[in-house]
Amino acid sequence: MMSNTTDSQSQELTLQVSRVIPAPIEKVFNAWLDPKFLAKFMLPAAGMSAPKVTADAREGGSFSIIMQVGDKQLPHGGNYQKIAPHHCIIFTWESAHSIDGSVVTLNFSTTDQGTLVELIQVKFYDEEAKSAHEGGWDSILLHLGLLFNPNKKGND
User: Fold this and answer.
1) Residue 62 pLDDT greater than 90, yes or no
2) Which residues span the domain enclosing 100?
3) Do 81 and 90 contact (CB within 8 A), yes or no?
4) From CA 94, how far away is CA 101, in angstroms rounded?
5) Residue 43 within any structural domain of the chain
């Protein structure tokens, strides 16, 4: 049985990852709301695909991303809480590996190299779950960058 302290600590765990994407802010922002683009970069691990993606990209709308590894399907979804064009997207994050009430915030800003995407996710079961999500989001941001700069391989 978990103690209240552990429950409270789980609620407070936060991760933050960021990456500069070599593209205009409008294109990077819109990619997060377009199912065709989401299917190409929502790939948190090697060997994954996202064969089915839907998005009702409006505040109060929902999205669904079915990630797949081999024959195993991993459903993810959530609801858009805030969409501030070219600045911020906030959505709930629901999956078998996420705690109820987990929320992701994406902040977008222009840099000399393109668009800085800052991703913050709150609420995890424990540090291990937080670490796994951090690696997944980092991979997703890497794949997003490769969409706009296909000649670049791997990390900076």
Assistant:
1) yes
2) 13-148
3) yes
4) 8
5) yes
